[in-house]
Amino acid sequence: MAEAVLPLVSVIVVNYRGAEDTITCLRALAGELDYPRLEILCVDNASGGDDLARIKAAVPEAKVIASAENLGFAGGCNLAAKQAKGTVLAFLNNDARPDAGWARAAVATLTAEPTVAAVASKVVDWAGTGTDFVDAGLTWFGMGYKRHAGSALADVPREEHETAKDVLFATGSAMFVRAAVFAELGGFDERFFMFYEDVDLGWRLNLRGWRVRYVPESLAYHRHHATMSEVDAPDTGRETFLLERNALAALYKNVSDETLAKVLPAALALAVRRATARGEIDATQLDLGKGVGPVDTSPVPVPRTALAGFLAIDQFVELMPSLAESRKVEQAARVRTDADLIPLLRKALEPAYPLPRYLAAHEILVEAFGIEQVYGQRRKILVITGDAITERMAGPAIRAWNIATVLCGEHDVRLVTVNPLAAPPPAPFPVSAARKRDLSEPIDWADIVILQGHVLEMAPALKDSHKIVVCDLYDPMHLELLEQGKSAPDDKRAADLAGVTKVLDAQLERGDFFLCASERQRHFWLGHLAALGRLSPRLYDADPTTQSLLSVVPFGLSAEPPARSGPGLRASLGLAESDHVVLWAGGVYSWFDPLTLIRAMDRLRAKRADARLVFLGMKHPNPEVAEMDIGARTVQLADRLGLTGKHVFFNEQWVPYGERQNWLLDSDCGVTTHFEHVETTFAFRTRVLDYLWAGLPIVTTDGDAFADLVRTEKLGVVVPAEDEEALSEALERSLYDTEFIAACKERIAVVARRYAWPQALAPLVEFCRDPRPAADRLPGSADLVVSDPLRGTEMIRRDVALVREYLADGGPKELAKRVAGRVLKVARRRG
């Protein structure tokens, strides 16, 4: 089997007065690396001397870029990245050398996992026995660090350095990143110059939903700070200055507003204490409370290691205006919360410096500012429905309500309806109504937006935003409309259908995660996603099962058994306790078939005089839902057959959601009947769940997902569509066959537990615990491997083949048309 085509990798090495190390590194890349598609770029950061000439002469395979000034590591890398041709960028310190498999292992991960933006190589010392980078950590005050660095590799637990894992950042000494993503984020932040630019990049990638993956098979060897030691010394304070300043800059850019308000004051105070502790400065020497001595205005010596901390804070303040602009960008683009990243911080409360006075201050500040609680803030989730939220709720509102109820245990949740009717019952979360113009505030507030129906059209800003969007597709509106709109003029009917389909298309193109109600629906929506081109290679490669994109989340039922709280249908409608009651537990819509049910009851009353049929609600609680003529026709048929008020009862007003159990508990079996059409095939009859909840044997028409459930689990009787005789017999058995009824109830109790709301919503709960954009919606997503353009004889062969094809298909006229089209296309491209 032929090897898969590999992407072009552009390896970038920055040199500053380290020609000897740089040449060793570049030669290893050119001669020892087992990777066939390689571009080597070396930036000389205005080293002066003969560095530039030596590198060019020693490694002619490398493209050497001369910078007119020292741009630092960050700027040097960015300069080369702009000239690189590869779809993968690799960064390697000039005092490092790659293992032969360094690039292949990284590329394999990037190819296999489209949600991984960067690969963190395993980095060991030059001899391969000491640890440099095998894991990343971050302190609460912004300092990234290499966990286990400096330890003998043999002393580090094997699982820490031999197992692939997600990390917050990769070390700039040896890492890979998708070129398109690097460009999307603007590369390394050049204000950092050097140090922590890699921490900042990884932090920003994670906030945008990308992953950074540590891959131990991608191995490199590093002489730590070999180049830095040539141009600086630890006691100058320069390195300390950069570390302190850049840590504050990364913290300021990347944490949320809530986190920043607590950690930045504490981080600044801790930086001062770090400085005084490093310099062993007596912090009480100017304190009058310690006594008044002779007047002394002589300069106080401050060690450079202490001065570095003070100057770092000063220069952080100087950078704040430009950092504030960057912060706006990062906070607007983020889709991950600070709490999401806690596992990647590893041990955020580690003090990092073993200095007694510093450790004491660390403990004080952590306690005073409540740092332990800072990263535990709850995620903000907005649930938006188009349905009325009142005591009398229909399916979409009930579903939205229960989604909010289940999620509010772990997150801060708001439920918003865009319906003007909002008079909700008491809730453990805020509930409000909003017009289109009012949606901006709750959407800006949210980390995740869960929406139904037409909501996306009312919040068009969501279409282009970075927010995580969950689309609830449990109600295939366009299929309902095929049946519901039959009485409309043909042109209006077609236009309405096109409009609803456009609404659904917009959701399918925008969503990061989709909910549907059954496996049947899942197949239907997968087909829709495929037709829209959403099932791309990138999405498929990220998850061939597509479960992380589209999950079955059925309508649910209460986890608590129904308990009577007031009068039910018998008291409300005047039915006797001895009557045997069939309940239709919902509205009457065009896609249902209550007419056959009425006729079946007419048959049944001839044999069973105490049989009763009750319709729970005829008028929809949402005033925006137009009444359908099927309801009137149903009443008319019952009237004509002399059933109304005797054997068939219509409750005109919708029973409040919190009282429906009283009507269910007064019933003996539940029924749902529908026609045989495409709406039925993919429908999810939510009323059936209430039958399960109340333990009622179920009589249902065949053709939908619940009919399959009733048949498979033996929960009642399934009958053919529009068969009044079979329906009448099924109702009789479910009302009067005591042995059959008892067996159904026993099995219903088991099945009902599977549909309790917490279980039904489990896929959504899991997604909200670790929400990420869909793989094809990650910023900077691009193809890794692209076809090489045809050149020379290959192009001639292609054109000759096309000429033959056109002549064969349509003769000279076809050829002339195609040639003219090609000429026009080239002219437009050049123009």
Keywords:
single chain, ten-stranded mixed beta sheet, 831 residues, globular, alpha/beta
CA-based gyration radius: 34 Å
- Give unreliable regions as ranges: none
Mean pLDDT score, rounded?
90
- Number of separate helices: 33
- Number of E-type strands: 25
How do the helices and strands line up, and which of them pair or pack?
Blueprint: E1 9-15, H1 19-31, E2 38-44, H2 51-58, E3 63-66, H3 72-83, E4 88-92, E5 96-98, H4 102-112, E6 116-125, E7 131-133, E8 136-138, E9 144-146, H5 158-162, E10 165-167, E11 174-178, H6 179-184, H7 197-207, E12 211-222, H8 226-231, H9 238-254, H10 257-278, H11 304-333, H12 342-345, H13 356-368, H14 371-374, E13 380-385, H15 395-407, E14 412-417, E15 431-433, H16 440-445, E16 448-452, H17 455-458, E17 468-472, H18 477-484, H19 490-510, E18 513-516, H20 519-531, H21 537-542, E19 550-552, H22 569-573, E20 580-584, H23 594-607, E21 611-615, H24 629-640, E22 648-650, H25 660-665, E23 669-672, H26 678-682, H27 687-694, E24 698-701, H28 705-713, E25 716-719, H29 724-736, H30 738-754, H31 757-760, H32 762-769, H33 792-830
Parallel strand pairs: 1-2, 1-4, 2-3, 6-12, 13-14, 13-16, 14-15, 16-17, 17-18, 18-19, 20-21, 20-23, 21-22, 23-24, 24-25
Antiparallel strand pairs: 4-11, 5-12, 6-7, 6-11, 8-9, 10-12
Helix pairs in contact: 1-2, 9-10, 9-11, 10-11, 10-13, 18-19, 23-24, 23-29
